[in-house]
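Hi P.,

Sorry for the delay on this. The queue was packed all week, but I finally got your sequence through. Input first:
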Amino acid sequence: MNLQRSITVLACVVLSALAVADTAAEPDLKQIMQDLRNNTVSMLDGLLTDDFDAVVVAANGIAHHPAIPGAQVQLVARELGAEMPAFKQFDQQVHDLSLSILAAAKEQDRARAVADYQHMLSGCLACHAAYKERVSKVLSATGDTATKSRYPR
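Then the structure:
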């Protein structure tokens, strides 16, 4: 009887820990963007030092970043309206280029990796110019302070 109770308690503790870990595993848009920035900087550092392994790791992190939480997607979609497909296209462009950079780095094709990096960075900057202020504003206006821009305008 005592063993059965211990197993039940242990199972509850494990399930509770898994539930907490699952909740913590879903980053918000701000954290996703910070991770993308960190990977972009790491990728540049790898390109500058011909560290193709670092480029592969960073490109993989960019290509397979977590999805934006559904509630935040809905807020952004409401704000952007008909512009939402263009917003999503920027993400797709970054995804596709990061996969190309990853492949180029695996082949140690520095020229292609650098060209794709420059194109990817241009896409990031264009997206930020078009949407960063509005997205930050709509998320912070709804009390979603976790997504406020780290660098307010």
